[in-house]
User: What shape does this take?
Amino acid sequence: MSLETGRYLIHHGDKVVSRSFIEDRSFNPKRIDLLEPSDREITWIIEKTDDGYILHNRGAPTAHIDNNVFALLIEQGLATKWTIEAVSQHGKDGYMYAPRS
Assistant: This one.
């Protein structure tokens, strides 16, 4: 089953996957981390393309850099195309994502 373009919440266990709300003021790529749940709903835009998905967090597309995920504030054209696959052992809403090779 494939996902359609839309807003999604991404969790890893009890943690929320997102950029931190406290970041430096540079335009450097911002690391995506596991955060404690908060009152703020952190939605992702998952954009379905012809050859994969682009994952956007807090308005910025993401890229796979040095085996980590970062949000790109500038050079957004370098965003990674991701594959997203259902993982049935994690329930009907269980998915995993990986950079396309």
About this structure: The mean pLDDT is 91.
